[in-house]
Amino acid sequence: MSVVAKSYNKSADPIVAYCSEHTTIQIPLQVELQKETLANAPFGGMLGAPEVLTFGQNFIRSLGGKRALDVGTFTGASALAWALAVPDDGEVYTFDIDHTNYKKFGVPILSKDQKTFQKIKTVEGPAVESLDKLIANGQSGTFDFAFIDADKTSYPAYYEKCVTLLRSGGVILVDNSLRGGKVADENQRNDPQNAAIHATNDIIYKDARTYSALLNLGDGTHVAFKK
Ligand SMILES: C[S@@+](CC[C@H](N)C(=O)[O-])C[C@H]1O[C@@H](n2cnc3c(N)ncnc32)[C@H](O)[C@@H]1O
Prior knowledge:
By secondary structure, this protein is an alpha/beta fold. The protein has helices at residues 14-21, 28-40, 50-63, 77-85, 100-110, 114-117, 127-136, 155-165, 192-206; strands spanning 67-71, 91-96, 120-124, 143-148, 166-174, 210-215, 221-226. The protein has a seven-stranded mixed β-sheet with strand order 3-2-1-4-5-7-6, with helices on both faces. S-adenosylmethionine is lined by residues 46-48, 72-75, 77-78, 95-98, 126-127, 149-151, 154. S-adenosylmethionine binds next to helix 4 and strand 2.
């Protein structure tokens, strides 16, 4: 068992587990989606860590965020979290190469709360291309918040595009920034996914366009604040 872990897998470090317990807040709809995803969705462990989702909601609410980018939908847990946090006229763009899991496991649960569900806009296809289309459509600087949680080798590209799409003061959360601790181990960087996340952590740390902090929250959360 790793000390870096999503809370539904429990960290081996009792202090990390204690912090997660005293961070996570979920409404019944979120609990239902979490149970359904972990029980029935293929690769259910891709589900976003609830403590990271709460942390992101806190940023959105504190920022007065209205528009969120959600890169990697899966069954919709992160999209639901952001949709609950933005106001009634807010919107969440959620990107996935294939929305089959969202339609099968997410939509039957999320659609029970139509007011929240209507805020979620699905964009299917490779997310790098989808984000490029938003930039080409003049959306740069118009989003308040971004969550990066799709294929790991594209993380440097996702970060770059999200910085462009965020307004000054906007916040990016990068999920799996420690990947079970493997990213912090230089002997494990021959794995292309660990290497790409490590490269992203370096890019963020050195990026003069953002302030940032890398946290042992969930599977590792790199937080970047656009200047
Ligand atoms: C870790 S899951 C997302 C979890 C979700 N954010 C949550 O909180 O439960 C990663 C998702 O990225 C999607 N994905 C993989 N490659 C992609 C790509 N090139 N473009 C867009 N989505 C991709 C996968 O289909 C998968 O659903």
